[in-house]
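To the team - zinc ion complex, inputs and output below.
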Amino acid sequence: MTRSIDSIVIGGQSIAPGQRKTIEIAVPSLYTHTQLEMPVQVIRGKKPGPCLFISAAIHGDEINGVEIIRRVLNQKSLSRIRGTLIAVPVVNIFGFINQSRYLPDRRDLNRSFPGSESGSLASRLAHLFLNEVIADCTHGIDLHTAAVHRENFPHIRAVMDDDETRRLAHAFGSPLILGSDIIDGSLRKAVEARGMSVIVYEAGEALRFNEVAIRAGVRGVMSVIRALGMLPTGSTGKRPAKTFTTNSSVWIRAPQSGIVRLIKPLGSRVEENEILGIVADPFGAQEQPARAPFDGIVIGKTNLPLVNEGEALFHVARVSRPESAEAHIERFQNRLDPSLDVETSSEPPVS
Ligand SMILES: [Zn+2]
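Output:
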């Protein structure tokens, strides 16, 4: 799908072909009566093409994506794009200010789509984003991290039975794709109903920067831009990285309350029944292991060793050839590790 050369209107402002504009979209003010805006940057190429949005901090404490978007917007090649790029680094302004996943009313913005003009604060913000910011988009990348005290290995979540979405998911080039169901009320659900193809990038931890996750995110977004024909593919000369796809994953939960020793790191391969971590009381008298239910790769884990029975410890994705996936993941991590600096970056690494 390509956009016509008509003017695109966002937040009441039109953006003509060849223009790059930052637009402040008014959102409900704070109770201090302080005005608030959602900043949106629109880059419109002279030539028509797809309209891609990249969004971050829909969960206000998931900040890796904010840095990914900042670095993407610094790419000089964007001056030559076809079509339109709409970048929204902070969708949930309220959560971002409060360093919280939620809106001030404790609602989750990513469970409030498509929203409505007269609904809750979350519902209104969802409606505004959908109708004022990304209404004209054909594709999208929504950037997330794990929730607070948890960490995700960089992976893509997407509905893999849609051809175009699958193409985007592979183009991103993260080592792992989790074909996942769409949750009611999520942005993905709302945009699917409008015929957009959207993938979610999950990487790192809430309220933390993770350099490997950020570098992989920047690379991934630029790869999707190229795959959509918005920039020439020849500019990198790199082939898309190999990806492993799975539709099955499970959270391993604490068998008892206690203090957990996490044994298996993110991205590591595990075998069925292998011990991932051990939960014990402070003296170690009551030890219980948490085991892998099947062969797979650790794609998520808690970073907080204090757990109550039933709390999520490890997220394991079932992979048919875990040894091959593990080798590929190791190469991926080494390539993006700033201490090894195999891949040159114009940005100094954050830690
Ligand atoms: Zn999230």
